[in-house]
Amino acid sequence: MPVAIVAAVNESVWEHLKLGVWPALFYSLIEYRHLKQSTNNFIVAKAICIYLIPVSIVVLFYSYTFILGYGNLIMDIAIFYVAIIIGQLASYKFLNKPPLSPIFSKMALAAIIVLFAVFVAFTFYPPHIELFRDPITGTYGVWGFL
Question: 63 burial class (0-12, 13-18, 19+ CB within 10 angstroms)?
């Protein structure tokens, strides 16, 4: 079951957000080692990136499916790439801004921790709303998979 924390456990939009969020965190940890001393606002920049990826996916996915009335795998993949680009570009902009107050780094770190706590909690106890519903089985979260 620990793999359920980082991998999609069903076909819901929420579970697919993990495919962007967890790799963004892991990539940020690798970047931290190499970029922390040479950039500004690292934690703030990465928090913005990590939040923008799922927000972009949700907004773009529900926008196009509302307009078309159905989903399309190629559009879904394109949206994933666009969301990653949006997150990385926003991160890059903040890495190159003048240094922010250290309080912003603390708030950004807290925001990252909260986001990942929510991802873990909602894997096991998802709200029963469309974002969390598996369109194939009609179930929610990991318990619908087991």
Answer: exposed
d(CA 64, CA 67): 5
Q: Which residues have a Cβ under 8 Å from the Cβ of 62 and sit 6 or more positions away? A: 13
- Kindly report, residue by residue over 91-127, the tens digit of the pLDDT: 999 999 999 999 999 999 999 999 999 999 999 999 9
Identity at 146, one-letter amino acid code: L
Please state the pTM of the whole predicted model.
0.91
Query: Which CB contacts under 8 angstroms, 24+ apart, belong to 78-82?
Result: 80/19, 80/20, 82/56
Rounded distance, CA 83 to CA 89, Å? Answer: 10
